[in-house]
Amino acid sequence: MKKINKLIFQKISRRIAFPLIFAVFFTFCQEKVNSDETNLLLLGALVNANSGPSTVCKTGSDGSVETTMPTIKKGTFALCRPSSGAVRHYRIEGLKIIGGHTAVSLYVGLPENYSAEVNRNSTLAAGQFGMNFYSGTGTGGFVPAYAYANFGPNESNIKNLTSNGNSTAPTAPAVAGTSLINFVEQEVDLCFDLTASSPPRLTVWVTGKNTANCKTRTNLTTGNALLNEATWTGGDPAVATGFSFIGLSANTGISFSKIVTSTQLAVP
Q1: 92 to each of 152, 176, 240, how far by Cα in Å?
Q2: Helix and strand tally (H, E) in the chain?
Q3: Which of 79, 105, 154, 179 is close enough to 244 for a disulfide, judged by CB 3.0 to 4.6 Å?
Q4: Does pTM top 0.85 for this prediction?
Q5: Distance, CA of 267 to CA of 110 (rounded, Å)
């Protein structure tokens, strides 16, 4: 009788023990998975908090696209662009550059996988366009701030947006404030058209100059533009189909609120 009772007890114990052990093991595994998932989420949040997106895109009601940067930092960054159609109008809002030898460069017509650094000394290929803003000053002699545009590899295509008469050195005597675009002492809004013609027409406006207002496109005409240029030399073609990038030469001394791109010209 005792033997029978012992066997019955062992069977009952096994029936109870196995589910209990399984339940404990399952609970342990589940807690381990949950813990690992929590750690991964925390790690992802930490990485995102530390790095963050380089650029943020936002599409406006008129189809234009805004590029903003949560943190301004040195490097080359792709500009956001409309979902279809080539960009023909660019607007840089709140641009200000301080500090010696600090520059902002905006290049058009580059390949999507472009990985080289974009800066004011970058060499352009046929059909590529560049707009550069340089704070000047710095060591080794005074150089006033200046801005200039270029199209294609021909160096003679450099077009000044400054009154010092030279895109690489000031005319003598060098005087502070010779730039037609004072982006060193104040924030400026600058915009420009880049047509599809061959060669393209570049038309540049600055808010507050000649009654122009870049945020009111109906206000923009060839008459109040700072520059109307369509005489590029060297037989350069139309602007290359591609992507637009902005190059920032420093982590500090550069600020802008947004860059707006649109497929619509201000002046057809």
Answers
A1: 22, 23, 21
A2: 1, 14
A3: 79
A4: no
A5: 24
- 164: its two tokens: 């010092």
**Over the stretch 221-230, which tens digit does the pLDDT of each residue have?**
999 998 888 8
Contact residues for 125 (Cβ-Cβ < 8 A; gap 6+): 152, 153, 240
Q: Rounded to 5 degrees, what are φ and ψ at 205? A: -125, 155
Q: Is the pLDDT of residue 43 over 60?
A: no
Written as six digits, the tokens of 149 are 């545009």
Whether the bond into 173 is cis, omega within 30 of 0: yes
Residue 20 or residue 149, greater confidence: 149
Nearest one of 138, 163, 137 to 148, comparing CA atoms:
163
Alpha carbon 25 to its chain centroid, in Å, reads: 52
- pLDDT tens-digit map of 6-15: 443 444 444 4
How far is the C-alpha of 122 from the C-alpha of 139, rounded, in Å? 22
Peptide bond into 200 cis (omega under 30): no
